[in-house]
Amino acid sequence: MSSLFDEVITPGADVPVRRITVEINGEKRTMDVEPRLLLVHLLRQGLELTGTHSGCDTTSCGACTVLFDGRPLKSCTLFAVMADGHKVETVEGMGSASELDPIQEGFKQEHGLQCGFCTPGMMLASKALLERNPNPTEDEVRWALSGNLCRCTGYQNIVKAVLWAAEKMRDEQNEEA
Amino acid sequence: MALDEIKIGGMGASRRRVEDNRFIRGKGKYVDDVVLPGMLHMEILRSTVAHARIKSIDTSAAWEVPGVRLVLTGEMMAARNLAWMPTLSYDTQAVLATDKIRFQGQEIAAVIADDPYIAKDACAKIVVEYEQLPAITNPFIAQEPSMPIIRDDKENQPTNKVFDWEIGDKERTDQAFAEADVVSTIDLHYPRSHPSPMENCGSIADYDRATGKLTVYMTSQAPHIVRAAVAMVAEIPEHQIRIISPDLGGGFGNKVPIYPGYVISILASILTERPVKWIEDKTGNLISTGFGRDVYLQGQIAMRKDGRILGMRMHTISDHGAFFADAQPTKFKIGLMHSTFACYDIPAAHLTSEGYYTNKAPGGVAYRCSFRVTEAMFFQERMIHAAANDLGMDQAEFRRINLVKDDMFPYRTAFGFLTDSGQYGKCLDVGLEAIGYSTFKEEQEEARKRGKLLGIGISTMTEPLGAGNSREYDIIGIKMFDSAELRVHMTGKAILRTGAKTQGQGHETTWAQIVAHELGIPADDIVVEEGDTDTAPFGMGTYASRSTPVAGAAVAMVARKIRAKARKIAAHLLEVSEEDIEWELGRFYVRGNQERGVTIQDCALAAYSNVPDGLEPGLENNAYYDPPNLTWPFAAYICKVEVDAETGVWDVLKFVAVDDCGVRINPMIVEGQIMGGLTEAYAMANMQYITFDEEGNCIGANYMDYLLPTAWETPGFELHEVVTPCPHHPIGAKGIGECATVGGPAAFVNAVMNAIEHTGVRNVDMPLMPNRVYEALQTGQNVSGMPPVKVG
């Protein structure tokens, strides 16, 4: 598998590469990457996981947010080699074709997206929040998402979407218990 | 039995969006997600200085970098007659600079390489020698005789002026001022802003030498205009050009113009015979692509003592950057600025405008607005606010006296627009009630005693949305109508295509709702496609809130053509004459015998399997819609703030929005548009602006300098509706996507001013950052956003 990536990710035979193993959406992937390759570019170009978007390249907008060992991090600010031995979750790892994650469902139900460009990052930041705080207040949601910019929605429906998902997840938890 | 329209996702249903199904799974397809076999990557070298002669460009080291396939300079573009391109305002713009640098960030050279990292590396190896010239960073410096001429490439350009323009009746207006009891004056700066969609601009050009076909994936709000422009500039026949605008990560007007990067990527693909991808970075987007506003607004209104406005005059001085590349209808040099005061009944008005070249990025776009109406309405509502204060009259009362009354429609404004419908007074009343206006003055007095500064700000406005009609509105000669094409398949499912281009507005959802409303085909059975010029009918694209007023009307009209044909088929199936056929949602039946009928799906099947003699088979059609007029939504935005006297920080305590956009196709989406628009209004009022230092360096070239509100700062909004159907639109709808951005800023600013104007201050220019508000509170003086005018 790594040889396939060599061609895509590394510019030429004389450029040094490093072998890394990253658990991406639950699957261990081993590949050779140029040391300066950014994680966002590994995901998008190398692994064709284009749900992670690149917005500002400067750690400001949050469109490239992924979960790194469960914490929301902006993948334009990490080199791919820094992910060696770590777990990365992208939007492609959320839910499945037949069953959406409650956060995905919430964004659709509450009209929490318009152009969709910030959405994957927003949903992953929301996921990290709800994992550590299943019952957040509106202010807590707003604070948790303050590293992610959206130009379309005005955030109000994004906040509603996260609260919708939190409620659904709590209900599901209660049913199981 | 007629169908339940809400159940089939027709008009009025808050139908959940179909496009969300791919976006929430990360399966959207934006330009940067497209990968073509053998694709190369392009990076643009931009100037570091604002104004300079180019002494030399040395690209030799860039060519040496392994993996570099091509390095393009202005000289090489010029050899192919592509160094300059036409703008959307009949000016020219440099594609790659040949003679001079005219703004910081201007395109100098491009590297095409195997990978974007290599292209960036090689760009850094290009050496440019400059001979610096004084930077002209505002229209006042531009007028100084000692300053150089920015556009020395043009003949007959002896100064830095772009245009002088005027509209209205000067004589009548002068007369009104002569008869006035009170004259109020205001002087404002609407600072330069950038639409800044989350996704930057980009393109993938793919020229196939074997077939002669050029395919370009592109971040464009108006792909058909691009096709026409490419045909003119690149001399490729129009039928061999295919522009595909896939999912767009927001637009807000930024993706209307044609940018040098698109043109360079096309030439690069022709030369390398490989697909070439160009994806701009955020700094490139912020410093070189279409900005909004940057206008100085000066004006006066003449009033009687009883509060009646007799006339208004306005003068604008606008900063267009280095190339006049405003995206706006040809006839109007400063957009639809003359829509100002359209909601007020005033007998006389006069507008004069002057525009200037400066050493700043070009492309005055309609940033979430219908061609400068944002500036027009901001001026209007700041002027009204100041005038009410000058008269000593209540803000709401002064507006109520002057608003156009419900029984005055159709109403011809002093500048000649025809507004057609509205319930302005009702909207205002709903807003005042919701904000608690009747008790506010006591609350404000009482709070002030406790050292708290409260303020309330009102902004009421109507705006012209949905250009054309084509008699008056064109862009580079292309008339501003729009189109829809509907194909109903034999199983009753359908595909609809339009000449508009969604960027988050949800056309895939709402257009299907219009078809469902007209034909009774469930919205889920209709797929909507836009943005591919090989398949979509010709249209002018999406901006200026024109989708629903124009393309949305075309959707209704094409569905009606389909229904007319289906009626003939129904008559054949029911074995009666067409005159004996009645329609209810989704179904034709025999008059007098409602039981005996056929569904639209029965007719669709018959169109392909059982056509009456003399009728063409199939159930497809298209419609080109030229609107008889613009649509005129109305809004009352009322904001309540608290200003911290010790810091100048202000917080929104409550914001009430009352919008009348006529019939709402999908209320959920309409409300989403309003909330998004209000957030951009809040941004402009509070933090979001781009300025320049004396050397022409752009301050606002990244998201650390260019502040956009996050979920944390953004206030909540309370929305209300009033519905006055548009009398000329087939489904009674009016534009809505931009109302809140247009009318919102004045509500925030008026509220802050109301909280602090007891100190004597009359105006603080946007953005109302804490330091500006604090200064006003300390000095009681106006705080101007005017840049330094001193030369040298």
Summarize the model shown.
Chain A is built from six helices and five strands, in the order αββαβββαααα. By secondary structure, chain A is an alpha+beta fold.
Write the layout of secondary structure elements.
The complex is a heterodimer of chains A (177) and B (792).
Chain A: H1 2-9, E1 18-24, E2 27-33, H2 39-46, E3 65-68, E4 71-74, E5 87-89, H3 102-109, H4 119-132, H5 138-144, H6 156-176
Parallel strand pairs in A: 1-5
Antiparallel strand pairs in A: 1-2, 3-4, 3-5
Chain B: H1 20-23, E1 40-46, E2 52-58, H2 60-64, E3 68-73, H3 74-79, E4 84-86, E5 92-94, E6 100-101, E7 107-113, H4 116-123, E8 127-132, H5 139-142, E9 161-168, H6 170-178, E10 182-193, E11 202-208, E12 213-218, H7 223-233, E13 241-244, H8 260-272, E14 276-279, H9 282-288, E15 292-303, E16 309-319, E17 348-356, H10 373-391, H11 395-402, E18 411-412, E19 418-419, H12 424-435, H13 440-449, E20 453-462, E21 474-475, E22 478-479, E23 482-488, E24 494-498, H14 507-519, E25 526-529, H15 547-574, E26 581-584, E27 587-590, E28 593-599, H16 600-609, E29 620-625, E30 634-643, E31 650-660, H17 667-686, E32 691-692, E33 698-699, E34 718-721, H18 739-756, H19 770-779
Helix pairs in contact in B: 10-18, 14-15, 15-16, 17-18
